[in-house]
Amino acid sequence: MRVVVALGGNALLQRGEPMTAEAQHTNVRIAATALADLARDHQIVVAHGNGPQVGLLALQGAAYDAAKPWPLDVLGAETEGMIGYLIEQELMNALPEGSQCATLLSRVEVDPNDPAFETPSKPIGPVYTEADAKQAAQDHGWAMVTEGSGGRRRVVPSPLPLRIVGLDAIKVLLGAGHTVICAGGGGIPVMRNTDGEMMGVEAVIDKDRTSALLALGVEADALLLLTDVPAVFRNYGKADQSAIRAATPEAMSDLELAPGSMGPKVGAAIAFVQASGKRAGIGQLKDARAILEGRAGTRVLPNKAKSLRKTDPGQKSSGFTGADQPVSVWLDDGGAIV
Asked: Among positive and negative, which fits the CA dihedral 11, 17, 18, 21?
């Protein structure tokens, strides 16, 4: 199978860890082990987040010259190269000799009239205390939002991706048997000006949305959205929270999810499944193979996936499945369980 794997920024840099080269290298090495396990049996395309990293570069740039900060499209390109290099090196160390891998910088076109530019929502950079957040907002004019942990983070516009520029080059490399690392951080945000010329945009595109677009573009058989939580939960953070093991796109659409974290992942999974009729999975990085094989995480399955209960095959399902609900299985066109 061809599988697009989207690594969350927090899968590459754990929450609360210092944003050092050593910490990122350690986490990338762990990620490469999970990716190599998949790559032995499947062709993988790797995308990745860059929220912590692009935020750090923006902070460093502002410290150098607060009046002339580096634009986010340039910082996005820098993180694509940095993180892509780390993933490629560790992945090649983990794969059998003779394996081929390539990292590409990917421009992604957005709509200049996207309403996201009026309502910044994408968290980037470190978590600040209330006092530090106020100072950063005052010094740099940044919009800030409160995280679930109680800390504050900078938020920037996150327009929807329209087109991956250079998709043909990705397809050529895949056709030649390469593992491809691309569309890092959601891609380098660009748009066309009134003269039709491409120009950079002060934004960070959600990498999960771009990963869904990428998966459709390369005709992937599955999309995996990997992060640092084991599954999508109903009533997350409450006493009655419970993991969702499988669901249809329609059922997932009814969930109330955090817009800056799990919401985009579920939205991307729904978009891919509805457009392709294929499957998507969400869960922890270490469970990548188990999620693909339906043994862990949350799977979003097209409507042709049937919900069955061994003890009561006639009972109607709500569209969700879990330990205490109908078991969802994938049926191919011949009715066989895959």
From this structure: negative
